[in-house]
Amino acid sequence: LLFPVSNLCGKCRPRDTDLLQPSLNFLYWTLHQTTPCSQQRAVAVLLSNVSLLELLQKVLECTWLWSPPSRPAYLSSEDALLCSGWLLVASLLLYQHRYNTEVHQTLSVDLTQVLNAVIFRNKKPILLLVSIMQFLRALLRQNFSSSLLVIVGQNTATTGIQPQPSSLQDTALHPLATQQVFSLVVSLQNLLVHKDLLLSRAVVACLETLVEYLYVKNQDVAQHVASQPWHRFLLFTLLSGGQKSFLQPEVLRLMTLFLRYQSKNIISQKEISQIIHEAAEANIAELPEATSCALHLFLSQV
């Protein structure tokens, strides 16, 4: 089915949302639900379809064209298509790298626009924001180097000011600029405060990948990001309200992140002991899978 569906997508226009959106969803789920052996073949089929890749390029570009000043609160058909497009491209990036699949047509994306979509949000629906963050994670995990993707807008200056001494950091973090990193971290922190489950998990995953990228590029910047005092206030905010338990997946993963990079001003022995105490009293077999995995990573890190 990959052949006719991918060929059908290549014959469509971005405005054909009723046909494209379920078709892209089918391609996405085929990549994720098939066996590893079939997955490699599926990636090869999709990446050899030039018309499909050209269509995906147009869909990504529509993200910036379909952004009216006042977006509806619900997910429109256009936004749903954009979500499917970003998720599919993120998956293709991941699997093309894993299997070193031959690429017949490259995609291009403006890094500044991708970062600004997360930093400023501009009333984008949560699902679209999560999809773009998934794409950003794929870029970070591949060190912004992929034979499928061409990055444009690298280190685009937001002002006419000449680079300051921090340009040495910019060079180390290339293609990110130091100011972009700090703005992105602040935005991710603010998004966590919304306490939306889907958004929270995507934000924590993006923050984890970002700090891992920074640690390889510049350990000082990574340590600075991981040890910001605001993180401690953020933890207390996440623990406030109805569910005060430390055994929340996003809280556990944040704690693990701070432990990994030795952010002693964020997480203390008291919090570590409290988590272990809650875990000892919990019925581990009844914990949700996400919580169980996060707890395993936390205890391993301890």
TrEMBL record:
Family annotation (InterPro entries): Immune_Signaling-Apoptosis_Reg
Top-level lineage group: Eukaryota
Annotated GO biological process: meiosis I
PANTHER family: BCL2 INTERACTING MEDIATOR OF CELL DEATH, MEIOTIC DOUBLE-STRANDED BREAK FORMATION PROTEIN 1
The protein's name in its UniProt record: MEI1 protein
Record organism: Sylvia atricapilla
